[in-house]
Amino acid sequence: MIDFGYTLTKDRQLDYDHGDFRYFRFVKALEPSIDLCIGCGSCSATCSAAQFTDFNIRKLHTVIRRGDIESIKAELRKCMFCGKCQLICPRGVNLRNLILAMNRAIEQLG
Amino acid sequence: MENTVIVIGGGISGMTASGMLALQGMKVTLLEKEAETGGHVARWDRLFPDRKKAAEVLDFAREGMKNVNVVTGAEVTGISWHDKGFTVTSGIMQPASSVPGPESLIANSGSLINEIAAGESNYTARALVLAMGFDLFEARKKEEYGYGIYNNVITSADLEEKFKSGKDILTSEGKIPARIGFVHCVGSRDEKVGNLYCSKVCCVTGVKQAIEMKEMYPSAEVFNFYMDLRMFDRHFEELYYEAQQKWGVSFIRGRLAECAENPDGTIILKTEDTLTGKPLKMTVDLLVLLSGFVPASGTAKIAGMLGLQRGTDGFVNSADSHSMNNLSGIPGVFLTGALKGPISISEAIADARATALLLADYLKSGKP
Amino acid sequence: MIKFNLFVLPFSFGLVFIVYSIVIHYYRWIKALPAVDKVKLASGVRNPSKVLASLKEIFLEGLLHRSLWKRNPLLGYMHMSFALGWFLLIVVGNLESRIYHGSHINAPYYPIFLKFFIHDRLVLFFEIFTVPAFFRFIMDFILLFVLSGLVLAFIKRKKSKWFGMTKTTNHSLYDRITLSCLWLIFPMRLLAESYTAGYFGGGGGFLTQNLGKLLVAITPGSSEMIAYFFWWSYSLVLGLFFILMPNSRYMHIPSEMLLIVFRHCGIQPKKWGSSFSSLEAHSCSRCGVCIDACQLNFAAGITNIQAVYFIRGLREQCVPENIALTCMVCGRCQEACPVGIKVDSLRLIKRREIGSGQVSDFSYLKNGHPGFADVVYFAGCMSHLTPSIPIAMEGIFKEAGVNYLFLDRSGSICCGRPLMLAGKDKQANELIEFNKILIRQTRAKLLVTSCPICYKVFREEYNLPIRIQHHSQYLLELVKDGRIALQSQHRRVVYHDPCDLGRGGNIYEAPRELLGKISDLVPAVKECADALCCGGSLGLLNTPVKKKDELTKNALEYLLKDRPDILVTACPLCKKTFSKHSGTEVRDIAEMVHDAIPGRLIRKTLAAKEPARLLAD
Q1: What's domain A18-109's architecture?
Q2: B270 contacts A41? CB cut-off 8 A
């Protein structure tokens, strides 16, 4: 697409070519098990917070992997950290530490 | 002594292998710990993908076994190994307790095998075929799914038994189920129960059973909850297609997280509909858990007697999974069927025939 | 008589330095106390009973090493020989020096190097009851006592297994240099005194005199010069030790003394880094007892995060984040610590520093009225994954005719402790406030929970005006009040103490008494305060699943040693964690109680294999 220096509408695609993968790399260094997710949704289904609000832990770490960070910043704050997700994950993803790592990423990378 | 073989395990693998060996003129003794041969197939009603009666497959296998010496109720208690071949000791056993389930570290310490021998016999042969097969995953281990706690949560094996009985399938309250859920990957692909592997046949079993429920109750709603649908073999994908097109079975991509029981006995389940990205609650009248494969309780014991290698999943490792998948690495000891990992019935039959062929060659040439 | 020689200078300089350092440290710790603690301290030191109690504890712990004796007698003796021995050398040496100089104001070095300045004649056997001879005998005896500890310490470094320790602390280079100085002090003293006694033919006791005679006989060269060399060496290692000490682990000696005083004055640990936590960090002797207590060490092979290393990091103000996060906060090291350092709270202080910057938003929680009841039941998040537990509890409530309310039936609002374990207290408080309102609205007199994690935080952080019980306590009370009748099933069971219920909540007896009524309880190999964590701890934040599996398997090996029929616990998280690896059935105590109500068996046990079932025919 020709870049005119401005756009009329915001591009709504996940722009993998211009994604910000610093966050993903940061998080992965702290919690390598982020790579093990197969997107089964059991974490988000059992989630204590998700029964009260739109909060989807599965999407959070999938989105960060796609290089999209803005949409998760506010979301991350809703986690109660109870650990049910981790107790149910069939892949052994260390979800609580993943949340901590994502928080750290936002703290340190802005 | 020349052409003698002992087959341990009388499921479809052991039956087919012994039949094929007998056909080639060998003297075969088949040892089965249960009162009858047939294994899991004997408890199944119809088979995927063509929904052939399981009994027909067994009849075919039995037909070939006319010259096989079948000893039932015989559990192997010892195997000795000498220059002429093998002596297998079997007792008529009364198990004091036995828990089917993954052979975890603690289970391996032997606390579960605790039998009382009521009489022993020795069998000697030049070669051994191990066909101990598998057990179904003990669904109670997924406590959050409520098997053994909620009356309307059953396993695929329970359902099959019901199909076989020919009776109507009703809820524990005696009602016709208006909404039925099938849960894939129960005890499979689940690090939380220690089983990382795929059990391979549950996906298509779930589709088959969903169709059968719709056949029985066309107005019932049927939902399959899956992570991936692995329709790996011929006609499987078509069956999936048929389930959607002809029967209107719904497929929801999300692993079951937990369920609870309503006061009326219906089951409320929680999952995520991962394709819409929303948590999903649903009330069903009947929930069917598609239990996966785990190594048979006898596998650890017999593999231990022979010093066979087992994988971290508990299944027996063959000498080479590509080219020597029927060889154990011990001359004269052959492996066949689901003791090496999840396998379908047609694969088991093919595997058993291959085993018989290799074994015949071994007895002739004396080389593995 | 001469009273000075140049070689005393290194020692004297070191002594001035160490006294100055300790005074400065004490001053800073006291000055940094919050006002309310200063008041406590001021009134405490004026209270003779508190002062006496402090002195007694300083004597028992600092010199005799009582706690260590109880845990490991050999280690206790070793530390006692150093501490008490050295202390006695100073005190008795001081007394001894006074017979030779009537003056009360001897220079501090004088008693230390006394034998250099006096070299009296040989003591004959029949003279042992004279005062100087007695002192010479006793001083040699004390020196021998210290040296015996030194030998043990040396063996311990090489063969820690002989001491019942699988691992000793991996000390820093600085600590090893300081340790070498300390170890050299007493041999140097022995050699200096011996050569002197041997050369002058008198002045030593049974040890130094005889050794001196031998040494002088076998060493060529001037014995006087050799003796003088060792006096210099003795003074140098003493001086060097004193200079190195404030930044070494030996700072624990003066620190622990002040810590004991602080504790007796009622000064409490704080939630944030404070004077108290700094003092605790300095009081760690790095003895390494915590290493063997730590399951991460002996079950999972993680050897760099134990309390001793964490606290060392705190003192050096460089705790890597992973060391703070890799800990189950199970309390085993705290239980083992001979100094009584509250390691868990130190660990949480560090986690708060890490986690406090992160914000939460729980505005989505909307108030609603839960209804009224006498007893409010909170199953906890994890119990939703072990439905047998809440089902059993509801069955028991109904059986006992209790007017109860299942507060989190359709899903829990987390109790807040998992956030706290990650150092997010502020965020946890939002959840706590919300839950408090819900609980209060029910007007219940009693809060019963099935989760020890919730139980701990309910008791410690909620400040609720009602009674709080874990279900094991509550069920025992129901039995004792005759509200439920139980029939023993006579199954052999072993009980696992959940960390937050046992070490965290000090509840050991209630579940055992309850199980005694309904089953045949067999003891576990490690139980009560020594119980192991199941490996599922919510405190363990950044450890991969494989390591956790190792922890669980190891704990199960201990628990199932006697091959019980059932492994009983009292925590949904323990139950879930153990179930993954246990070949033996795992159940919660509530399920056991429910099944023991005659005619109420809800669920046949796993071991009793039964045919496929449950559909109405």
Answers
A1: Orthogonal Bundle (1.10)
A2: no
